Amino acid sequence: MTLFPIFSDLKNRPVLVVGGGEVAARKVQALLQAEALVTVGAPTLAPALRDAVAAGRIVHCPGRFDPAWLEQAWLVIAATDDRSANAEVYEAASTRRLFCNVVDDPALSSFQVPAIVDRSPLVIAISSSGVAPVLARRLRERLESLLDQSLGALAGLAARYRGQIRERHRELGARRRFYDWLLDGPVATALRRARPQEAEAALRQALSQAEARRPDAWCWSAPARATPGC
């Protein structure tokens, strides 16, 4: 493994994109989905970027690259069609110890943007370390066809009930078996059929049944009669 895989939390963190064309626009769109604070530096902007500036979603620094643009950045992407300009961005970012991706140029990149399958909050990233991007794209396409869109809703539901699941199933083996049921049983089936309320009801019912079976959910009173729910 030549690259260390990492998912970055860019929410409310400044990111600089140098370049104003369609490639830059695609990168900006992905960054906005991650809730980054995006600044685009370029002499001119593609229509989608102009619209984003007008809507107040991004900031535009007009003109050629200025190293001063890097002052507040956490991350940098160079997406111009001029390799010498991209190299200038990369060198300036590296001097400041900022990770920089130059689109389609692994030699001038300190990080790479993988192909992704987005089933938020579940995200799968695929990288060929920059040596076979077509292969990474093919794998992404295959995974897109294999992984149902409902997986995102299933992951979100599991996240919302994670605390209750841990409380009801304190033993690790039992908790794993419950998650297997959650991923393969009626909850997942209901979500695939676009029935989120039915899915959540099934999960809540299963958790209630697990609570009733827990030994510490019973209080014992003399001489030997159990009263549930104490």
TrEMBL record:
Pfam families linked to this entry: CysG_dimeriser (PF10414), NAD_binding_7 (PF13241), Sirohm_synth_M (PF14824)
Keywords (A to Z) from UniProt: Methyltransferase, NAD, Oxidoreductase, Porphyrin biosynthesis, Transferase
UniProt domain Sirohaem synthase dimerisation: residue ranges: 150-207
Biological process terms in GO annotation: methylation; siroheme biosynthetic process
E.C. number: 1.3.1.76
A single GO molecular function term of this UniProt record: ferrochelatase activity
NCBIfam families according to UniProt: cysG_Nterm (TIGR01470)
Protein name per the record: precorrin-2 dehydrogenase
Organism per entry: Bordetella trematum
